[in-house]
Amino acid sequence: MIFGLHAVQAALESPVSRVAEIWVADERHDQRVEIIYKLAGDLGIRLHKTQRQQLDDMVPENRHQGCVARCHPLAVLDETDLDVLLDNLQQTPFLLILDGVQDPHNLGACLRTAEAAGAHAVIAPKDRASGLTPTAIKISSGAAERLPFIQVTNLARVLRDLQQRGIWLVGTSGDSEMSLYQADLKGPLAIILGAEGQGIRRLTRDHCDQVMHIPMQGGAESLNVSVAAGVCLFEADRQRRL
């Protein structure tokens, strides 16, 4: 199941729609729901109007915005898909790597931010990290349907492969000497962010070509990983536009 208007609309608008059936709260009559009705009708997808309580029962403890859909799972992308993506990429590679981010809310927010900043893919390990849960898909506001999310079995090996392709690996850590605004982020690039509260793992850091920190004022010692992703990715995007 997926839920939320953005998530359902994005799934309907995907080149290969994976939506099988939709339920909409009968109290909703606004323009956003009308878009769902039209897209579902054009694709011949069954749509049910129902009471909000049924939707609450279908996705308990989740804010569904009056819209729930039963979908086929998103395709699971792996190292082979990453190779194909990079082999066919016509632009300078720009990647986000998440080293052990376990909160699906943070994963969804990172996907949304990465797409907005122009990243070509988000990479994460399969183990001890969040996958594309319904919550992550909803929080991504459609980015999960459009931006490749690649789960790898051996992150260290993938990092070595990226380096062999000439992709510069830039990690983040509060104890690094180099500031984000001193880093050169214009070339083939993968920005690496670590798990909430822990940062990037030692082995991951050992593979980095550079490690940078985000300059901060006030008493906060760190940022939420999705906020840090936004700061780093949009600084890279700014530099790449110069």
Task: Explain this structure.
The chain is of the alpha/beta class and 242 residues long. It folds into two domains: 2-71, Ribosomal protein L30/S12 (60s Ribosomal Protein L30, Chain: A), CATH 3.30.1330.30; 79-241, 3-Layer(aba) Sandwich (Alpha/beta knot), CATH 3.40.1280.10. It is built from ten helices and eleven strands. It has a seven-stranded parallel sheet with strand order 7-6-5-10-8-11-9, with helices on both faces. β5, α5 (104-117) and β6 (121-125) form a beta-alpha-beta unit. The relative contact order is 0.15. The mean pLDDT is 93.
Keywords:
10 helices, 40% helix, four-stranded mixed sheet, seven-stranded parallel sheet, 2 domains, alpha/beta, 60s Ribosomal Protein L30, Chain: A, 242 residues, Alpha/beta knot, elongated, single chain
- Helix percentage: 25-40%
Number of helices: 10
What would you report as the Rg, rounded to the nearest angstrom?
Answer: 19 Å
Element string (H = helix, E = strand): EHEHEHEHEHEHHEHEEEHEH
CATH topology of the largest domain: Alpha/beta knot
| Low-confidence runs | none
Average predicted local confidence, pLDDT: 93
- What is the CATH architecture assignment of the largest domain? 3-Layer(aba) Sandwich
Please indicate the percent range of residues in DSSP E strands (runs of 2 or more).
15-25%
